Each structure stands twice: as C-alpha cells, then as structure tokens.
C-alpha cells in the first residue's frame, strides 16, 4: 500500500512505559516524528514510571500524539488479560486504521503484531530491544517463546535489531529473515553528553558518596536481567581492597528490597547505594570514575552508550549487545559473564590507575559515532516507514 496524499498514521505499541531504554526511545520517536508527514498513536499498558511524562508530551502543540492506556495490557503472563488485550488491540487498530504499527517490548510485540495482522494493517514492524527469552530459561519455556516469536515474525513486514549480536543470535532461530530485517541502534542524545559538571566532588557529596572517594556507578532496572545482586557481590570484593570506594546503582524495580537487605547483611551500608531512579543520570556519569555493567543479557544497553560517550572507563560482562560496543583493552574492559572475581579485579585496576581509566574513557567516547544519535534514529525510522508503504 502507498500513501498518495495526507499523513502516514503510525501506531507505537509498548507493554508499559517503565523507565528503560526501549520506552524512552519509543516516547522520543512518538514526539519527534515529522508532524508534517506523520500522525502518531501510542498504545500501552498503564502503571509505568513514564506515564505522566507521556501525557505531557502527548499534548505539546508542536508535536502532539494520541496516547491510550489499555488496562488489559499487563507485563506479567496472564492468559485471560492477554487474550482480552489482543481483542482490544485488534478492535482499536481496526477503528483507527494506522498505516504502520511499530511494536516494542516482548508482550506488546507478540500481541501487537498478531493484532495488527488481524486488523489488516498495511505495514507491521517490531524492534527487538533484547529478547523475552534467554538461555537461562528451561528449554521448554524458551522453545515456547521462540515459537511465538517466529509466528510474529511471519506476520511482520520488517524486524529491527539494536545490536549485531542480537541479529546473529536471532538468525538460526528463524527471527532474522534475510531482506526483511536491519540494525537500528538504540539512540541517545549525543549532544548532551558528557554533561557539563563544574564540581564532581560536590555531585558525589550530594549523592552521599563522599566528595573525594572513587565512585563506581551503574544504571538499570532492579530486575534479574540487570543482576543487581551480582553488582553488590562485585562491590564487596572491590571494597575489600579499596575501602574508600563507593558503588552506586541508579534504578528501581522488583529486586529493590532484596538487594538492600543484601547490602546490610554484607556490612556495606553507606558504601553500596541504591538511590532509585533519578533524572540527573548524565551528571552522575560525569561525576563517576568507572561504570560497571553486570547484566546477564542485553539488547543494546543504552546506559552503557551514555557512559561511554561521557568518557567513562567501562567494565562489563561480555553479553549480547555489550560486545557491539566494548572491545577489551581498547575502549573498555570485557569480562566473561558471571566471573565476579575478574570483574572486581578490572574495576580495582582502573581505580588504582586513574590515567589508564581516563585513556580508556577517551577511546570509549570516540567510539560512539553518529549511528547512536537519537535524532538520527528517528529519521531512519521515518525512512523505513515510508519505504515499507511503497
């Protein structure tokens, strides 16, 4: 189908507007697509941390979009709610008749693509910001989700991956069809990094970390994927050698109470901090000395891109999209997944060798090119929508 006149109507579907890279990028896209060429809908489940921000963005006069919360669209598996959400999405898409449906996140990706197919949407695409299945699941569970994803890929016109590693992983599973997929990086606002910070010590003190103490930071949801418990164990190993260091994990989520109890049990209160979500993460990165990422799996970690562009020395487990970004010894340090002793050793080395850390940080910043710019990401999506409708 081609759109010969008028605007292209694009519907973005996401499970819930939690404070994560996929959700932030979806909202940025919805509020920055060219208003002369595109009308935009955002459909999502309620209860996310970004709900109020989405409401504010939706009514901006220069780039408004239609925002609808669907109570049936929930994050956890719920056969009754999931079937109701599929029906509700199908009805809404038939009523609004978008030219393009672009889905994000696992639940909305499955239900949204199937509903768009049932509603006869001309162009259907999905971005894998990571996968809803992983190698740590029971084989039967993983096989079930891979089967669902294959069905959805067959119902789609295009599939986007945020990392080359994810595309390679998806290919033998039948999720990366030749000629029907491409790489599109999860973008960040490169022009705002590194943040201008006049006094790093003052920022550290504001965070409760001590003005002159080495600071190791991380950012992410407190959920199993991000492995905050592993972060605490690594911190304990580092603190045994550098007692003055401080460790900060910015984020919130289901594991919050567990990791806070872990910190207290390990006698690390005041040394390993979990301040929750904050809006000054760019300044926190600018005040930090090392960035550590202990995730078990990733699509393309947006926080790591931001840390690298901020000129931070980064240490991370060599998982998925992380390998697209870091080259061990060149622009950061990579460690085999779950090797906590090696992770701690690399962090200690960088804290004890500030010049080496600064050099890795300079190379990290230089390696983040324009392909990671969030505005370039939006323009690439505009071109893709137009080409699919031809």
Summarize the structure.
This protein has 390 residues and is of the alpha/beta class. The chain has 15 helices and 13 strands.
Fold topology:
Blueprint: E1 8-16, H1 21-30, E2 38-45, H2 51-58, E3 66-69, H3 79-96, E4 100-104, H4 106-118, E5 123-128, H5 139-154, E6 158-161, H6 164-170, E7 181-183, H7 200-206, E8 215-219, H8 228-239, E9 246-250, H9 256-265, E10 272-276, H10 281-287, E11 290-293, H11 302-309, E12 313-317, H12 322-325, E13 333-335, H13 340-352, H14 354-366, H15 374-389
Parallel strand pairs: 1-2, 1-4, 2-3, 4-5, 5-6, 6-7, 8-9, 8-11, 9-10, 11-12, 12-13
Helix pairs in contact: 3-4, 4-5, 7-10, 8-13
